[in-house]
Amino acid sequence: MQTTFDLFADTESEQPRRADQIGEQSWVLRGFALPQIDQLLPALESIIACAPLRHMMTPGGFSMSVATSSCGALGWITDRNGYRYSSEDPVSHQPWPAMPEVFRELAQAAAKRAGFADFVPDSCLINRYVPGAKMSLHQDKDENAYEAPIVSLSLGLPATFLFGGFARGDRSQKISLLHGDMVIWGGVDRLRYHGILPIKPGRHPRLGEQRFNLTFRTAG
Ligand SMILES: O=C(O)CCC(=O)C(=O)O
């Protein structure tokens, strides 16, 4: 598993920066994180070194195709006892690594740009996808309250994000996400189903054959 990144490859200058509205209170901010990439990648490397990525088990007994870790006061976990947030890493029994300031500031800036000026994330879930890994359609419902938006950052290989309705069977928009893009959904859209189609094979100049997704939430 590659967990050290090429911190010097220059791939970011060509990507467009714009905001696409995908729902009443949902936005894709294209390239929004690119100016911070040189701070974000070393911070991500440090977190993974402290709280290594692992394939967690669903309550139904299946190993997730994404490998996960977390930082912040609370980390999302799953095992045979269900989905929930925990203040400690169940592998090390230590608190999760602190959320780096560059993560928090980026998430707050993206949330503000999408109309959520008061966003205070206490959890950042890190998902690592290799080609073929996916995330089935689901709602984010394990947080204590739904007033805060979900703020998501894509790094590395491209992905197709499914953004659906309020029932699993509703039609989904298919949205291409590239390195540095951010998606924010909240308010009336907070409980929309969403997921990721299987990642296509490829190699990103900085991150290699993988995609990372960082999802910032107010969980507690
Ligand atoms: O990888 C993504 O972009 C979405 C991740 C996601 O849906 C989740 O962590 O709940």
From TrEMBL:
UniProt keyword terms in alphabetical order: Dioxygenase, Iron, Metal-binding, Oxidoreductase
UniProt region (Disordered), positions on chain: 1-20
GO molecular function: broad specificity oxidative DNA demethylase activity
Swiss-Prot/TrEMBL cofactor(s): Fe(2+)
PROSITE patterns: FE2OG_OXY
Top enzyme category: oxidoreductase
UniProt cross-references to Pfam families, sorted A to Z: 2OG-FeII_Oxy_2
Record-annotated Fe2OG dioxygenase domain positions: 120-220
Matching InterPro entries: Alkb, AlkB-like, AlkB-like_sf, Oxoglu/Fe-dep_dioxygenase_dom
EC number: 1.14.11.33
Database matches in PANTHER family: ALKYLATED DNA REPAIR PROTEIN ALKB-RELATED (PTHR16557), NUCLEIC ACID DIOXYGENASE ALKBH1 (PTHR16557:SF2)
Name assigned to this protein: DNA oxidative demethylase AlkB
Organism phylogeny: Bacteria, Pseudomonadati, Pseudomonadota, Gammaproteobacteria, Pseudomonadales
